[in-house]
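Example record

Each entry pairs one chain with its bound ligand, S-adenosyl-L-homocysteine.
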Amino acid sequence: MTGWLAIAGLGPGAAQLVTPEVTAALAEATDLVGYAPYVARVPERPGLTRHRSDNREEIDRAGLALRLAAAGKRVVVVSSGDPGVFAMAAAVFEAVEAGDPAWRDLDIRVLPGISAMFAAAARIGAPLGHDFCAINLSDNLKPWELVERRLRLAAQADFVIALYNPLSSARPWQLGRAFELLREELPDSVPVVFARAVSDAAEAIEAVTLREAVAGRADMRTLVLIGSSRTRLIARAGGPPFVYTPRSAGVPS
Ligand code: SAH
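Structure tokens for the complex follow.
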């Protein structure tokens, strides 16, 4: 049996948002590897062995997947959203670079998924219509000073900013601190979108201004989008507003 390793994105939650390519890889797999809540999203079936791990064990998990593929298994490592965005694909390549030289010749493929920022943006309008960036607010893998520097420079450059991992019970203060810093750099009126559990039954999306934004509206399943100075909010009587960022900036008309 020839082994392979696919690092697959399961999208934000809804089954319709899993790509056919990922579904096909899951159907052929012998082994499924990932953080337990993501593994739980894949239906059980005979012949599919499940390897669940804790959230913090990314490199160990990557090593396990590589050893299984080298032994001839057909392995799918699952991430939520896109596997290349703050997720397992980079961890696997880190393990490949540091590990057994034979791993470099394995059949390794990255199968893209719909990242939370794209799913969230689509629900509210088109906030990512102009230049944007994504910042992971967690300081598990980088110093908090670097997070603050990036936030400040991104705001000064007038990017729309997608904030992943906005807070957790272990670090409840970070999003509040981020809002404070962003208020120093951006007009109070820029739209801020809290997109929680996008595409799940528990989905909740709201748009406020930076002036009104409070960290308590977010949890670890929330994607927070900070508008640029050009991001617009279209109020609607019958429902939530549309939020969009025009396609052009600074172009003489
Ligand atoms: N690889 C994933 C991101 C992993 S980091 C992706 O591309 O989406 C985990 C963070 O993603 C969460 O803290 C949250 O900020 C965001 N996220 C993941 N799924 C989400 C969903 N369904 N709705 C809103 N945010 C989500």
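The pocket of S-adenosyl-L-homocysteine is lined by residues 12-13, 79-82, 85-87, 115-116, 120, 164-166, 195-200, 220-223 (CB under 6 Å).
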